[in-house]
Design a protein that fits this description.
By secondary structure, the chain is an alpha+beta fold. It is built from three helices and eleven strands. The protein has a four-stranded antiparallel β-sheet with strand order 9-8-7-10. The protein has a three-stranded antiparallel β-sheet with strand order 2-3-4, with helices on one face. Strands 1-5 form a two-stranded antiparallel ribbon. The longest helix is centred in the middle third of the chain and has 11 residues. It starts with 20 loop residues before the first strand and ends with a strand.
């Protein structure tokens, strides 16, 4: 609904209107790059010689005839018996959950820090504060983010929430590999409106 005016899905049955596919993300990304200035985009699952996700991009044209670029992306259709392997995992109880700052900003900060250390400490609290810290024998660097906000995990009538009873000011922290964090941040080309860290 956020992306398409028209959406039609035909699964095995009305109550099972899902299809699980696996594909190479780079292929889809490359196909969608041609759609940046598109008038319309149509994505369709086809089965010619093999299952494909067909991306048809209608480009603006100076003449009355339209230009359509078509990409066929090979996909693997995952059988229903394996769908449980792809369910979203249950999230363990966490100490703090916080909205991340703009990922582009975070990436710029982390890229600078990678020249100083191989790992960094992310710490956050329930006051919407997050710090990225590096400590070596030679230098100590901390970047502070404020007013990020914390997601409301518990509904109003539910008094138990993750991190319940935790001091709002106290920081929960985790040490992580900078290169792996950069890989995650570099992969976020869609620029999500919200990303959160728990």
């Amino acid at each position: 609904g956020n992306f398409f005016d028209e959406f039609q899905m035909e699964g095995v049955a009305a109550e099972h209107n899902e299809i699980y596919l696996e594909l190479v993300p780079e292929n889809l990304s490359r196909a969608l790059k041609t759609a940046q200035s598109a008038k319309a985009v149509k994505i369709k699952l086809t089965n010619k010689h093999c299952p494909c996700l067909r991306v048809a991009v209608e480009l603006p044209s100076l003449s009355s005839s339209s230009r359509i670029v078509t990409h066929d992306i090979p996909v693997g259709v995952i059988p229903r018996r394996l769908w449980n392997d792809f369910r979203e995992p249950s999230v363990p109880d966490f100490d703090v959950s916080i909205y991340l700052p703009m990922l582009k900003t975070m990436k710029t900060v982390v890229e600078k820090m990678k020249n100083l250390s191989n790992s960094l400490v992310i710490e956050a609290n329930f006051r919407g504060e997050m710090n990225l810290k590096i400590e070596t024998d030679l230098v100590s660097v901390t970047t502070h983010f404020k007013d990020l906000g914390n997601p409301p995990w518990a509904s109003e009538d539910e008094c138990q929430s993750s991190g319940q009873g935790r001091d709002l000011e106290s920081m929960a922290e985790a040490r992580i590999d900078i290169k792996k964090l950069l890989q995650l941040l570099a992969g976020q080309q869609v620029n999500p409106t919200e990303a959160l860290c728990s």
